[in-house]
Automatic annotation (TrEMBL):
Its EC number is 2.7.1.59. Residues 17-331 form the ATPase BadF/BadG/BcrA/BcrD type domain. Belongs to the eukaryotic-type N-acetylglucosamine kinase family. InterPro entries: ATPase_BadF, ATPase_NBD, Euk-type_GlcNAc_Kinase. This is N-acetyl-D-glucosamine kinase. One of its GO terms (molecular function) is N-acetylglucosamine kinase activity.
Length: 347
């Protein structure tokens, strides 16, 4: 940065972008550059100058060209809605699903570099990072648990060490995910049908929800389209059976709760987030449809209880802002920190 007047100018006019790039959708938001570094000073609600949404930007699902085009599209649209052009951007953070290795980060970084001039700070992260930052208002500290169609626990120490657990997909044991819960429920129905397992309310409730008349028809239904989200959509049916007293549904949900809390515990232990005595304070950000509150069988609440039993200092947080805003706040807090320390951590 140059003179004082230049600094004042960028603080007044410059903007920060945050992108949440998921398998279902991609969102970009444009925020003003807040001229302070303490997240406790952030206005509530956080002002959003422009927002744009598009489809999938996970290169594993749609290929490189489509992923890149989607990212460019949402960035340009969010800026145009904010009445800004590319030259107003001071920093951008992209939390993109499918970014797991430095090579993934470099690929996305190279795409975005072609859009912006060299002085724009670009941060490329896994989408779990945007979710964590949405609960901590930009600070990367603590653990995030995401339980939607898939599930993952991801954490950071204050000095930047990171660890993750689960998130490897349904074949590799993500049993706390929506897909994991629903596939266990469908398995229980097939077992009951064959006489390999006990009868369960899940049979009638799932058949009714799918508009099928016999368990045999489930085979055709799964082969017709085995997309993970379509299977995972059955979780509320499992919850309502458990709420109505079905033992099998109850067992499936209890197992998911154990799996989800184990993922969080694995990250907390590897990063020593709870300190030497296990009582230290750290945020646990809880995100995703599976953790939504339900009347009697509340998966998110049960997971929180197990985490608090193990780590009484854990602070469960349900984010008030969306992950794209979390990504933008991460970019903001990082450039403010870099300004203060004179260090440059951007990739
Ligand atoms: N009230 C509810 N209780 C429990 N689960 C629910 C509830 N409502 C929706 N779900 C489940 O939440 C999951 C979808 O959550 P979400 O929309 O967060 O996931 P996603 O964004 O599609 O997936 P991912 O985060 O893995 O990319 C589905 O499995 C759905 O059945």
């Amino acid at each position: 940065m140059g003179s004082e007047s230049e600094e004042r100018c960028s603080a007044e006019e410059g903007v920060i972008l945050g992108v949440d790039g998921g398998t279902t959708s991609t969102v970009c938001v444009c925020l003003p550059l807040f001229p302070f570094s303490d997240h406790r000073q952030l206005p509530d609600p956080v002002p959003i100058l422009g927002r744009a949404a598009a489809g999938c930007s996970n290169h594993n699902s749609v290929g490189e060209n489509a992923a890149r085009e989607t990212l460019e599209q949402v960035i340009k649209e969010a800026l145009s809605k904010a009445g800004k052009n590319l030259s107003a951007v001071l920093a951008i953070c992209l939390g993109v699903s499918g970014v797991n290795h430095p090579s993934d980060q470099d690929r996305v970084l190279n795409w975005i570099r072609t859009i912006f001039p060299g002085n724009v700070q670009i941060y490329v992260q896994n989408d779990a990072v945007a979710a964590l930052a949405s609960g901590t208002m930009g600070k990367l500290h603590g653990c995030v648990l995401i339980a939607g169609t898939g599930c993952i626990a991801y954490g950071f120490t204050e000095d930047g060490k990171e660890a993750r657990a689960a998130g490897a997909g349904p074949v590799l044991g993500d049993w706390g995910s929506g897909y994991g819960i629903a596939s266990r429920a469908l398995t229980a129905v097939m077992k009951a049908h064959d006489g390999r397992g006990p009868g369960t309310m899940l049979t009638n409730c799932i058949l009714q929800s799918l508009g099928l008349s016999s368990s045999d028809e489930i085979i055709g239904w799964t082969y017709a389209d085995s997309s993970w989200a379509r299977i995972a959509a059955l979780v509320p049916v499992v919850v309502s059976c458990a709420e109505a007293g079905d033992k099998i549904a109850d067992e499936i949900l209890n197992n998911a709760v154990q799996e989800l809390s184990l993922s969080v515990k694995a990250v907390v232990q590897r990063l020593h987030l709870a300190g030497e005595d296990g009582n230290g304070s750290f945020p646990v950000v809880m995100v995703g449809g599976v953790l939504e509150a339900n009347k009697r069988w509340d998966i998110g609440n049960e997971v929180t209880n197990l985490i608090l039993k193990a780590y009484p200092g854990a602070c469960p947080i349900r984010p008030k802002v969306e992950p794209a805003v979390g990504a933008a706040l991460f970019a903001w807090s990082t450039i403010m920190r870099e300004k203060e320390t004179g260090r440059n951590d951007h990739r």
